[in-house]
């Protein structure tokens, strides 16, 4: 890590050069902050139960007879958007005619789930979080993209876990309609969240 911008900013605030002791103390503080961030990132990684839950509900649908997978429209939305492929992958480059191999689907899943796990860890901050809670929240975020705006995140950060678990049930709509599949997924996420 380039520490020069930090030292320059603090030096500018002080309006003077550092003493050797101040340099050592500032270096130690930066090292401590970096170490805490590494520990937090390590502490928050998606577990096997979370991976299995996401894969169960996202599926790897539309496999062709040649083993390749093709994109399909969202079955719950009025306009078919977003188009999806593999393990629930969406994006501007996915639409009618998009075809991936199973290896592409699996690689995209690993990359996407790592990004979502990092976003959930960041949204939760230092709040105490069990593996089951973290896995459930990553599954929720993978499906909704709403970890930062959901009331359940705020309740979790406040340690109100029973109330947070009840919030999953509010996220069962697509295009204004309650969806049976989303209801079942949210029930499973809430159960995983409460499992510890």
UniProtKB/TrEMBL annotation:
Coiled-coil residue spans: none
Catalytic activity line of the entry: Hydrolysis of (1->4)-beta-linkages between N-acetylmuramic acid and N-acetyl-D-glucosamine residues in a peptidoglycan and between N-acetyl-D-glucosamine residues in chitodextrins
GO molecular function list: lysozyme activity
Transmembrane segments annotated in the record for this chain: none
Gene3D superfamilies hit by this protein: 1.10.530.40
Enzyme class, UniProt record, top EC level: hydrolase
Family (UniProt): Belongs to the glycosyl hydrolase 24 family.
Protein name, entry field: Lysozyme
Organism: Novosphingobium endophyticum
């Amino acid at each position: 890590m380039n520490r020069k911008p930090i030292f320059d900013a603090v030096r500018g605030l002080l309006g003077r050069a550092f003493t050797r002791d101040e340099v050592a103390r500032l270096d130690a503080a930066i090292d401590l902050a970096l170490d805490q961030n590494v520990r937090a990132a390590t502490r928050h990684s998606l577990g096997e139960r979370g991976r299995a839950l996401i894969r169960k509900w996202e599926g790897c649908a539309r496999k062709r007879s040649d083993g390749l997978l093709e994109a399909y429209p969202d079955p719950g939305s009025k306009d078919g958007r977003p188009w999806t492929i593999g393990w629930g992958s969406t994006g501007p480059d996915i639409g009618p005619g998009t075809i991936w191999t199973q290896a592409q689907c699996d690689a995209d899943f690993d990359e996407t789930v790592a990004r979502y796990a990092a976003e959930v860890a960041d949204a939760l901050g230092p709040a105490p979080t069990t593996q089951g809670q973290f896995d459930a929240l990553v599954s929720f975020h993978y499906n909704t993209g709403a970890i930062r705006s959901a009331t359940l995140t705020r309740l979790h950060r406040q340690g109100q876990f029973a109330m947070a678990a009840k919030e999953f049930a509010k996220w069962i709509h697509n295009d204004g309609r309650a969806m049976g599949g989303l209801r079942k997924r949210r029930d499973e996420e809430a159960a995983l969240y409460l499992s510890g």
